[in-house]
Each structure stands twice: as structure tokens, then as C-alpha cells.
Amino acid sequence: MGGVVALGSVRSCGTTTAAVALAATWPAGRRVLVVELDPAGGSLAAASGWAAEPSLVTLAAAARRDSDPEAIWAHCHELPGGAAVLAAPASASQVRSSAGMLGGLLGRLGELDADVLVDAGRIDPGRVESATALPAVVGGAGRVVLAARPRLADLQSLGTFVETRVGLDGPLRAALALVLIDDGPYPDAEITEALGVDVLGRIPWDPQAAELLTVTAASDRRLRLSPLLRAARSLAENLVDERAPVPVPEVGHDETPAAAGATRTRLLRRFRAPAAVATAGTAARNAAASDAVCTNGSSPGGEVAR
Length: 306
Ligand SMILES: Nc1ncnc2c1ncn2[C@@H]1O[C@H](COP(=O)(O)OP(=O)(O)OP(=O)(O)O)[C@@H](O)[C@H]1O
Ligand SMILES: [Mg+2]
Known about the structure:
8-stranded mixed beta sheet, 8 strands, Rossmann fold, binds adenosine-5'-triphosphate, disordered C terminus, 13% strand, binds magnesium ion, single chain
């Protein structure tokens, strides 16, 4: 049996790219499948130049007769490096209806003889159950990885999600980890301390590699040595290595939900006004990070370059 890793984000930041980069660098000898389940509609078929079918929709139709997870393989496309992709249709309503029809099967992804990366897309903090098939997936997921940029606005949205959802929901909280996309002024430890969620790794902002990913095999020299794929390779190894039961993060573990919330609120104040409360070292890092941000292709305001 393989492992299931669900990836999502509270704000768009490069989740699909991270999922494809992980699939492209997944440790050799392990079959890997990407399941695109973004409730806003899929983007991988368009990015890869694939036909609209097969897809989640054709699988949903077939699953009326056969809910065996092995049925998935007949509905997949293939990335240049060989990883299978169950692509979502571009239409949000079709994703939702297909995911609804596939509820049982999605909860059985862990039975496949493959590691499964589920791109759960953007998670609406207030409607996590209704908006996605995440809960079904979480039931069988070793990990739920939230991607976020380590910047003020993104961390605050993430903090709200973690406070309102995760403190109340044991299985989701225990499975949760962060992957940070691009640069920002806050180090991993500070983010873990503030949010009570471990940082598994970082994915750098690398537009050239991100563009090539859906059309070029990871063995291509331009991709193999790229910062994006180097980071993805090491993250993929970590995800495979940690396939043991996921520990609940230490921070806030013994606190009541109310106390944990107060702790996070206090720590998040640091994210609100980093310059005002920063130590000299943090202030220097902030300045260096914002310089780096301005030179690496993304905007200092933190929007994903599209
Ligand atoms: N690490 C990265 N480096 C450079 N460009 C990136 C990176 N990640 C994503 N991008 C670019 O940003 C755009 C959006 O990326 P992507 O589709 O992965 O985001 P997303 O979070 O999945 O968005 P959505 O929420 O709409 O699904 C794409 O043009 C992609 O090439
Ligand atoms: Mg996406």
C-alpha cells in the first residue's frame, strides 16, 4: 500500500506546481499518482496540452459500476517523467459533482499500490467539508500539506484556518504540515511557533522550472539542476521517509483550544508588525528577504506572478 499526501492552500501560492514538482522527483522505484481535486477546477490538462478526457469526470461515470480504486489508472494522463495524473475538469461544478460521486473511492486511495499526491486546491477556511473531497482523503492521508508563502497576509490567513479548523479537528490537526513557497521574512521556526504546525520544507520561486515542469521530464538537465526540483526532490524524500504515523505537533498540544488560540494570536502579532517588534537580527533578515523577493520574479506585495 502507498501513502496519501493531500496538498492544499488557503491562498493561491503554487500548490499545483508543488504537487507536479513532487511527482516529478518522487523517489525512484515508487509509483506515484497525482489526483487533481481542486474545487475551483483543474489546470493541469490545459497546462500539459491533454485532451479533456479521460479525467475525474470519466472516472466518476465509471465508478458508478466499479468503485475499486484500481479503476483510476484507466482514467489517467502521464506527465513527461512518467507520473500518472488523474486530471480535474476545468469546470468547478464538474469537479464538485464528480468528487461527490467519487466520495467512497477517494477515501480508499491509500489502498493503491502507489503513493498518491492529491491537489486539493484552495481550501475555503469556512467550508472545508463542502468545498472539497478533503475529508474523505484526510481519512486515508498520511499528511495534509498546506502550501503558503511565508509573508504577512498569507500567514495570517493560514493562522485563521489553523485556529478555527485544526484546533477542533483532531485527525486533520495531527496530519497537518506546511510547505513554504518562495521567500519571506519569517524563518521556519518562527512560523512553527506561531501556528503550531511543522514546516516540512521550502519550495523556491523558480519561474523557468515551473514553466517547464508540465512539458519536460525532470531528467532534463535544465530541470534536474533547477532550484525548484532540487527542493522538491528533498521534500519528496522527506515525505516518503516519514511514512510512520504522524506525530501531533508539540506546540499547543497540552493547551486547551482557547489557550492555544490565545498563544497563536499573540505570536501572530509578530507577523502583523515585524519591523516594530523584531529583534535586530530579524529586522536584518526582513530587509534581506524583501530585497531577495524583489529580485526573484515575485512582487513584494506577495501576489503570485501569473
Ligand atoms: N515555485 C514556483 N516558482 C515559479 N513560478 C511558480 C511557482 N509555483 C507556481 N508558479 C507559477 O504561478 C502560477 C500559478 O501556479 P499554480 O497553478 O501552481 O498555483 P496554485 O496555487 O495551484 O493556484 P490555484 O489556487 O489557482 O490552483 C503558474 O504560472 C506557475 O507557473
Ligand atoms: Mg492549483
